[in-house]
Every structure is written in C-alpha cells, then in structure tokens.
Amino acid sequence: MKLNDIKRKLFEGNNGKYSHMLVVEDSWDYSYYVKYVYYGSDVNTIIDEINGKNLERVKEVYSYNLDLDSQLKEFRAYHVEPLTVKSRVKANFENIINGETLSKAVAFASEMHDGVFRITGEPYINHPLNVARRVCEFKDSKNLEDLLSAAFLHDVVEDTDVDYVDIVTRFGASIGALVMELTTDEDMKDALGKTRYLSIKMKNMSSWALVIKLCDVLDNLSTLSGCPIDFKHKCIDEKTEILIFLLQNRDLSDTHIKIVDAIIKKLAELCWEDNERLNKINLLYSLLSEQKNSKINNVSCLERKK
C-alpha cells in the first residue's frame, strides 16, 4: 500500500482523530498478520510514525472510535502502541514509584502475588519489583511509568485469575497490551515447545515489550545460583537458545543490546567452568558484536550521506 493510500484511509470519516489499526504482512510461524493499533493520535502523527518503514507491507488500514467494551473485543489479540515522544532524561526509580498509575500497579501486583514464593524461597513480588528496577536502569522513555507498571503486572494474567479485561479496565489499553504481549499462550507453548515458542514470541514483540521481557530474563538468571543444578542448566540452555534465535532474526535497539549484553555476561558467569555451554555463549558474544558493528556502520553511512 502506498503512503498516499494510507493517508487517504486515515483521513476517511474521522476528522483526523480517533484510533487506527494498520494490518502489516508478517511471517510468523503461527500467524500471517500483525495488527498495530495507534490510539488517540492525530493522522499526521501516525503518518510521521510509519513514514520511512516498508509501507508495501501495510495491507489494510482501519479507523476506530469504539467504546471500551468494543475495543476489548476488537483488539484483544493486537499489539497496542501509543505514539509518544521519547524522553532523553534518565528517570530515577524511587522518584517515579509514587506515580498514581504505578502505585496502583505495585499494590495490585502485590495483592495478586501475595503468599506466592519462587523456587529460591523469596516472595514472588520481589521478581516483578526487580524487573521494574532493571527496566528503569536500561530504558529512557516519556512513558516509563507505563513500562514499569507493565513490568510489575507482567505475570499477573499468566499466574492468577486476573484476565485482560481486568488489566485494561484498571490500567488502560497501553499497559494492558504490554501485559498481554508478555503473557504466555499455554496452548501455543505446548504446541511449539517452550524454547521455540518464546523465541518466536520475543522476535515479534514490540520494542517496549521486549525491553521488559529481556529484563525478566536477566532477573531470572540472576536468581539461579541457589537453584537445583538440573533446573539451573535447563534455564541456562533455554535462555541461550532463545538469545541465539533473537540475535539471528531481529535487529535490536540500543536498549535491547545493552540488556542482552548484561544477560550474556550473567550466562558466562553462571557456567564459566562448563566448556560446552561456554562455546554457545561465545557464539552469543559474536552475534551481539555483529549487531553492534551493524549499527556503527549504519551511523557511518548516514553521516557520509549528510
């Protein structure tokens, strides 16, 4: 679809406002279309956001002005990505933990995970707390409160009786969509196998969701030291294979690369005496270096064009 066609469809019958959904051709193993929903932004902002991407892959454009119940029904399986400008100011976790939405997310996650413990024996709520801290450490964003809220809530739908409607009703569509991206589809996991399922899932996550998921992986690895050896080795092997797939099949952002770098260092630390596993970790270092060099080369090319 050409940019002019997209512009025309975006402007059709909605005064340049409301929500829009772009259907983009993709090659997931288990889905042919990826649907991106842009909420509450004017048409020109959406055009600026998608301009420069491969617009030939945009197959359909829809406009919406639906009530919440209709949105939940229509968008349940779609990624929701609000259009906002990133902030370059590094936030302090303690300063924003008192934000209204984040405070609600912390309280709700604490209530839902109350009385639950991890295999290490620590209260489960420590895990989403640590994931949120890592997101704050690695990510600069004007929408950091939403990202941290999703980090606190990322296991709630998967591990409790709370569902997607509950999350969206309490915290809004943006946080709800991130939580759903981070929630495991148990049927799909069983069909593909956990490692294959997570590899494909992480390859196709939105950039924000992948930041949270990578911080989740980093925190899980950071708590392995006191775990049974079989569990430890299974987790290391699973995460290593997922990262190999991710690095071979997705171009990562600078933020993703920083987190992956920390994950690889943690993997090396966990199995420094295991030559077989270290060989795969060396492959990870090599693949990560290729991504870093590719970014450097792209910047150099842009500078030469200027």
Question: Which features characterize this protein?
Answer:
306 residues; four-stranded mixed β-sheet; 4 strands; 7% strand; globular
Describe this protein's structure:
There is one protein chain. By secondary structure, the protein is α+β, with helices and mostly antiparallel strands. Helices cover 62% and strands 7% of the residues. A hairpin with a 7-residue loop joins strand 1 and strand 2 (33-38). Helix 10 packs across helix 13 (207-222) and helix 12 (194-203) runs parallel beside helix 14.
Short account of what is shown:
The protein is 62% helix and 7% strand.
The low-confidence parts are 14-18, 26-35, 71-90, 299-306
In angstroms, what is the radius of gyration?
A: 20 Å
Strand order of the largest sheet: 3-1-2-4
Query: N- to C-terminal separation?
Result: 29 Å
Please provide the count of β strands.
4
